[in-house]
Amino acid sequence: MAATAARTQNWWNETLHKLSLHARVTLLAAVAVGLAVAIVSIAAYITVRQQMYQNLDNSLSQRVVQASRNGVLTNLENLRRASADALGLSDIRVGVLSANGDQYGAQNSPLPPMGQSELQVATGNRSSSLRTVGARNGGSHFRVVAVPAKFCPVGFSDQCQDDADFLQPGALVVAQSLGPIDQTLHNLGIVLWAFGLIGVIGAALAGNAVARSGLRPLARLTGAAEHVAATEDLKPIPVSGTDEISRLAMAFNAMLHALAQSRDRQRRLVGDAGHELRTPLTSVRTNLDLLAQADKRGGLRAEDRQQLLDDVRAQMDELTQLIGDLTELARDTPQVRNAELIELSNVVEDAVIKVRRRAPGLEWDVQLSPFPVWGDERLLGRAVTNLLDNAAKYSVPEGAEQRTDGLPIGHVTVRLQDGVLTVTDSGPGIADADLPHVFDRFYRSSEARSRPGSGLGLAIVKHAAEQHGGMIYARNAPGAGAQFTLWLPHAATQTR
């Protein structure tokens, strides 16, 4: 049985999964109402049946007890002369059962069913008997009641009145037909079945209407998704209401907006990358063409040849840096994967050492305090290095050379306190019009176009900060140049 039940459940689950959501909602409504109607109908049928039987039993028992006490029907002469029809009780059969099993009844009326239960009452072994005899719709369905009764034999009416010793022990048996009750219950069953069927059909129609109305927004959403998949048109779909389908549509629109932004960023990245790569590649090609033409004419002087080769190497370094920056920005992941516990002060210290070697003419004011974070040490190191490189580049006045007296030509202030890294340079600062765009990819202000760089360094800093759950912002420091502030959360507050 367990295996059969498991197979039935599997078949039912497979069948449901094959149906559409519309059909499942309709079926669910019909089944739910059908079960409710069935439970209510069964409860009503049983309640009515029990109440009718209870009322019949109470009425029949009271009449039989009363008849046994007044002695009219227990007088066999009276019983034989007066039939149930004469008493207006055509649906009732009356009889007397003696202790030795003799049965007495009216001459023109059939006897009630008498069996072992009634005989036990007649012999005094039971106080009363109440049972149902026969089958429904069989024509002989009765409710039979038997109570103890002293009866007077035929021919001893006068003696029984004078002397109670002539009364013999027995039982008064009354059987009432259950035909009217059976017919009433039959009609009730038909009515309940009819209304139940009407209710199930109505529930199925209502479920179909509700499913069609409720799933109409879902159908529009499905059509919109199919349209996006077919045309790559990321326009949002109209949303009305505040139900679950509307929330799903708003989430779908948010997803479309994110996809549109990602696609725009990719397009801008590809377009800007092509534009930025074109310049160093053109320079490399020009220098190589000059070398090739010079070799055909007998070659260049050693100094000129070395200068061209140095230019080619510088352009190749710029290409390598640009390609690395593009690769880093192309990783459009929401957060760092495989993060590890690192000490941010060590990362900043290593970056300061590296940048200081590249900018020996600057004064560095560095104060660091320990601060643990979860993150990618390589990405954070690159971000901090970009910040310091940017500060070193703009702290040196354009066209300035190393001073002969050994004094610094600029200074950079680096502070790390409670996860807040502040880098301040001594340059001219950032124009107000450029402040909102300094972290945009490939963005370079008009003052910065004459300096080396691709415009991706600060974009990588912002990218790293966002991936580590932090933030970066820029401002002009009073009495100094530009100031960049990078904040990262403590390792204790981060989830791995």
From TrEMBL:
Molecular-function GO term, any one: phosphorelay sensor kinase activity
InterPro entries (UniProt xref): HAMP_dom (IPR003660), HATPase_C_sf (IPR036890), HATPase_dom (IPR003594), His_kinase_dom (IPR005467), HisK_dim/P_dom (IPR003661), HisK_dim/P_sf (IPR036097), Sig_transdc_His_kin-like_C (IPR004358), TCS_sensor_his_kinase (IPR050428)
EC number, as in UniProt: 2.7.13.3
Subcellular localization: Cell membrane
Top-level class of the enzyme under EC nomenclature: transferase
UniProt feature coiled coil, ranges: 302-329
Span of domain HAMP: 212-264
Keywords of this entry: Coiled coil, Kinase, Membrane, Phosphoprotein, Transferase, Transmembrane, Transmembrane helix, Two-component regulatory system
SUPFAM superfamilies on file: ATPase domain of HSP90 chaperone/DNA topoisomerase II/histidine kinase, HAMP domain-like, Homodimeric domain of signal transducing histidine kinase
GO cellular component, one term: plasma membrane
Every Histidine kinase domain range: 272-492
Catalytically driven reaction(s): ATP + protein L-histidine = ADP + protein N-phospho-L-histidine
Bilayer-crossing regions: 25-48, 190-211
Protein name: histidine kinase
